Amino acid sequence: MNAIVGSHDLLLVTLDTLRYDVAAELAAEGRIPNLARHLPGGVWERRHAPGSFTYASHQAIFAGFLPTPAVQGPHPRLFAARFAGSESTADGTWVHDTPDFVSALAAEGYRTVCVGGVGFFNKQPPLGSVLPGLFRESHWEPSFGVASPTSFESQVACAEEVVAGLPREERLFLFVNVSALHQPNWFHLPGATREAGDSRETHAAALEYVDRHIGRLFAAMSGRRPCFAIVCSDHGTAYGEDGFTGHRLGHEVVWTVPYAQFVLPGPDGEEATA
User: Fold this and answer.
1) Which of 238, 239, 241, 221 is nearest to 230 (CA)?
2) CB burial readout 37-57, b (16+ within 10 A) else e
3) Keywords, A to Z (predicted)?
4) pTM given for the model
5) Among 54, 58, 176, 239, which lies 20 to 30 A Cα-Cα from 117?
6) CA 218, CA 163: separation in Å to the nearest integer?
7) pLDDT tens digits, one per residue of 201-222
8) Hey, CA dihedral for 194, 198, 204, 209, is it positive or negative?
């Protein structure tokens, strides 16, 4: 990351509530082509989430504790606050002196922008202002939220406006919390009903919906210079496995999440080693 920070724009997309098994299945079946073409080897990496629900997981992520590979570590981190005795800070880690890498990037001259999704980013109650408050600029409106069938395309339109309004020389760190996978998601599957509710199938349909629009986000973020992108889930969710429904609980389908990192080439085709 020491070669990336300062030379690249940065994009972090959390596909809120996305399960690893559903993400891996859709990639293998060719149902998410716009995401799959950027996944290293065409597959998601299987990782463990740092928390079992949005608030906890994002607090950890912004402190540099991204989802970790689902094998024994320690695993070197991309970002880390300076901390004596840290076993996950390595030569390639971008080390900073702030408690979160969002404020550290701002100190390096990045415009830090949050496009919120689920309720922890809606800036309505005080708790909904904590995470977006880390950013220099934050955006949320009801059309970005969990109840909107067009949430992600609305979020992408906002991101496009953000990028278009920046001076070309200004570096950008854009964070997008995608709400479409979170319940309710039944409306993304044709023929599903509110009465029948959400299911693993409607969850998958929501990911297909996101895939149809994510190419616009990638295009916007790579239109000025190369962009280092992280796309991952913050936690999964249960649809009846072992009697569990939802998340904020310790089940395999909640803790296991998809993860990918890659470089989006800039407008001249320039890439860099990530």
Assistant:
1) 221
2) ebbeeeebbbbbbbbbbbbbb
3) Hydrolase
4) 0.94
5) 239
6) 11
7) 999 999 999 999 999 999 999 9
8) positive
